[in-house]
Amino acid sequence: MPNTRPLPVRYPEDVEHLDGALPGELRLPRCRRCGQAFWPAGPVCPRDLSRDVAWYTDAGTGVVTSWVRFHRRYFAGDPVPYVVVQVKLDSGPRLTTSWAGDADPACGQRVAARFRRVTDDAALVEFGPDGRERG
Amino acid sequence: MPLPPIRQVAIAGVGITALARRSGRSPLDLAAEALTTALHDAGLVPSDVDGLFTNVGAPLAADYDRMAEAFGLPVRAALQTWTHGRFIGPALQSAVLAVATGMAEVAVCLAGVRFSGAEEMTGGPGDVEGARQGGGSHGELPHYGMTAPGGGAAMAWRRYCDRYGYDPELIAAVPMALRRHARMNPNAQMAKPLEHADYLAEPYVVEPLRRPDFALLSDGGAAVVVTALDRARDLRTAPVIVAGMQGLHAGPDEFLFAPPGLGVFSQGDRRRVERHPVYAMAGLAGPQDVDSLAVYDAFSPNVVFVAERFGFAAEGEGLAWVQDGRIEVGGALPVNTAGGLLSEAHLCGWGHVVEIARQLRGEAGERQVAGCATVQWATPFGDSVIFQADRR
């Protein structure tokens, strides 16, 4: 077993989201019956069990609702300390990702999605300060 | 044909081994010692045991079938959940239900746990929870460095403190109280004092939580003998009555280390008052009738979250409520009087049940809660069991 940070597991319901990150798109599932986006992905809508679920590209904007800083190194090569944020998207779902900002995040801070290549064929969405609010 | 009338059920004996960070002993060896001690406590022998229930198995602990084989137990009702502390309540409840319905006469809850050598299960490369779709019930996403159950607990804690306007360091009151309890428990591992300055000098593991906020991963074993109350009254030791139970909760608004509606992971943002049938089942009006509380304290904030979820404190007031000795022996509601997962040992919660029996039998020595007649087990994930002394 490698002792470095793993790549995400490619569950069938997650492939669209994971592969969407390569061209820099935040792909999320949305129920066509109730209209709600949801996360984590799944075969049906968690609100009404509908199978009529379609993928869309989210604007990727939201606010920080919590964040933590890992001081303990769990994976070899991880530069500790590092920050992980939880973001509530304007579209509703909450996502957890690494933090792409230089300064510490703050709860309530506006954020936007960006995309980081981790291997030749894998990229991850992550959040950082919303550039439109800079300066 | 309907099920038969259910029988009243009691704990007839308990046993716990010596505890260590690294024992060098096998899970099976630890389980054997715990079983022997508990059967002696109850005045029973292995051939009496026909039910075996555990919440943990290999590689962390001994599997139910290996224990039955190795210890010569003629088991006809068994359960082993997926290896997790969170299932201690359901495992105990299954044993109670098996005895209540007559599926078993003497059901033993048994766990020999060896965390030493298995540390990576709780964060890093061996963290199987992190491979679960959507992050699993700890909210782990190892590809983002979000590994270890403590990551989810820390995320929930920051959210709580931001939402209700607290300094996260006020959580120190919980590990300090449990350390004081451990110092009155000769079998607990953490004997070193932990006062506020000591807490602040401890390193962060996952900020805002520090090392004393994390459970003490340990080697040890514990056993709980469950039988019908009528039979227990004829045995060696005073019975402890299982008075009420409610089950483990799950759903989009549940997160393992937060009350519903706190707004972490898939949770919504709306807190709500819940119905807790465990109190009425035990003949109690509510949490005000509880003398001592046992919380699954894998992380310190669990105590705050249980206090709010079960109505000991109102929404957003739990962190203020745990301050100033309220949860210490001698305070209004002593919590985890043996030291808990934080300062006694992480035996997946079985140590708490052993302590509940000791308190209700009046055998807790220096840390005995005066007039202790009702003790509640409760977790942030909603399950609960209420135990009472036999007032016959």
Give structural notes:
The complex is a heterodimer of chains A (135) and B (392). Chain A is mostly beta strands and 135 residues long. Chain A has one domain (12-133). Helix content of chain A is 4%, strand content 39%. Chain A is built from 1 helix and 7 strands. Chain A has one helix spanning 15-20, and strands at residues 26-31, 53-58, 61-70, 82-89, 94-98, 110-119, 122-129. Chain A has a 5-stranded antiparallel beta sheet, with no helix packed on it. In chain A, β4 and β5 form a beta hairpin. The mean pLDDT of chain A is 95. With 392 residues, chain B is α/β, with parallel strands linked by helices. Chain B has 2 domains: 9-116 and 217-232, Thiolase/Chalcone synthase (Peroxisomal Thiolase, Chain A, domain 1, 3-Layer(aba) Sandwich); 148-211 and 242-392, Thiolase/Chalcone synthase (Peroxisomal Thiolase, Chain A, domain 1, 3-Layer(aba) Sandwich), CATH 3.40.47.10. In chain B, 27% of the residues lie in helices and 16% in strands. Chain B has 12 helices and 11 strands. Chain B has helices at 27-42, 64-71, 88-101, 149-164, 173-182, 196-201, 229-232, 277-281, 301-309, 318-321, 340-343, 350-360, and strands spanning 9-16, 51-54, 77-80, 106-114, 204-207, 209-210, 219-228, 240-246, 292-295, 374-378, 384-389. In chain B, the strands form 2 sheets. A 9-stranded mixed beta sheet of chain B has the order 3-2-4-7-1-8-11-10-9, with helices on both faces. A two-stranded antiparallel sheet of chain B has the order 5-6. In chain B, β2, α2 and β3 (77-80) form a beta-alpha-beta unit. Chains A and B meet through β3, β4 and β5 of A and α4 and β5 of B.
SSE map:
The complex is a heterodimer of chains A (135) and B (392).
Chain A: H1 15-20, E1 26-31, E2 53-58, E3 61-70, E4 82-89, E5 94-98, E6 110-119, E7 122-129
Antiparallel strand pairs in A: 1-2, 3-4, 3-6, 4-5, 6-7
Chain B: E1 9-16, H1 27-42, E2 51-54, H2 64-71, E3 77-80, H3 88-101, E4 106-114, H4 149-164, H5 173-182, H6 196-201, E5 204-207, E6 209-210, E7 219-228, H7 229-232, E8 240-246, H8 277-281, E9 292-295, H9 301-309, H10 318-321, H11 340-343, H12 350-360, E10 374-378, E11 384-389
Parallel strand pairs in B: 2-3, 2-4, 9-10
Antiparallel strand pairs in B: 1-7, 1-8, 4-7, 5-6, 8-11, 10-11
